[in-house]
Amino acid sequence: MTVEIRGLGPDDAEPVLALHRAAASGVSGLAREADEIGPDYIAHFLAHATIRLGAFIDGALAGEIHATRMAPRQFHHVVTDLTIAVSPDVQGRGVGAALFEALFAEARALRPGIERVELMVREGHTGALRLYERLGFRIEGRFPRRVRLRDGTIETDLAMAKFLD
């Protein structure tokens, strides 16, 4: 399986919307349910995120990652509001890791450069948590009882960060 990573823009809105809805339909780490993901949400981050990357397999969008540089200049070395969505069909096959490595490269190339990448993950999303730790993210904070899942379960949200060298 060959994964091609490239930047995303407004013309990619339809496949990105379909990807996010598919990723949110199953057991998901996304903070939105499928019915909360609409064209306006997708258009907003495609227009405003600092880094927007897609992973394509055989020309089809298989994953997407985006993050935004913090606005005040004293925080310009930080990207946050990171979201990654990977098609359920290819989860666990390296697409997420490839997207993160491409995001790290893009972040290092920005001027001023990015030194810190932040994300949130719910404690029960163990597959994502293992990936993030393997990529060098460390837990920096806990938000107990922050995430209510559709089955009523309430989980702790974890704040994680990675420092780029």
Task: Describe this protein's structure.
This protein has one domain (4-163): Aminopeptidase (3-Layer(aba) Sandwich). A hairpin with a 5-residue loop joins strand 6 and strand 7. Helix 1 packs across helix 2 (39-48). The radius of gyration is 15 Å and the shape is globular. The protein is built from 4 helices and 7 strands, in the order E-H-H-E-E-E-H-E-H-E-E. The two termini are 29 Å apart. It has a 7-stranded mixed sheet with strand order 1-2-3-4-5-7-6, with helices on both faces. It has 165 residues and is an alpha+beta fold. It has helices at 13-25, 39-48, 95-109, 126-134, and strands at 4-7, 51-57, 60-69, 78-86, 116-122, 138-148, 154-163.
Can you give keywords for this protein?
Aminopeptidase, 165 residues, seven-stranded mixed β-sheet, alpha+beta, 7 strands
Largest sheet: 7 strands, mixed
Text of the CATH class: Alpha Beta
Q: Residue-averaged pLDDT, rounded?
A: 95
Number of helices: 4
Within CATH, the superfamily carries the name Gcn5-related N-acetyltransferase (GNAT)
- What is the strand tally? 7
Percentage of β-strand residues: 35-45%
Shape: globular
CATH architecture: 3-Layer(aba) Sandwich
**CATH topology, anyone?**
Aminopeptidase
Instruction: Please tell me how large the radius of gyration is.
Output: 15 Å
Percent range of helical residues: 25-40%
What count of structural domains? 1
Low-confidence stretches: none
Strand/helix succession: EHHEEEHEHEE
Structural class: alpha+beta
For the biggest β-sheet, the strand order reads 1-2-3-4-5-7-6
Distance between the termini: 29 Å
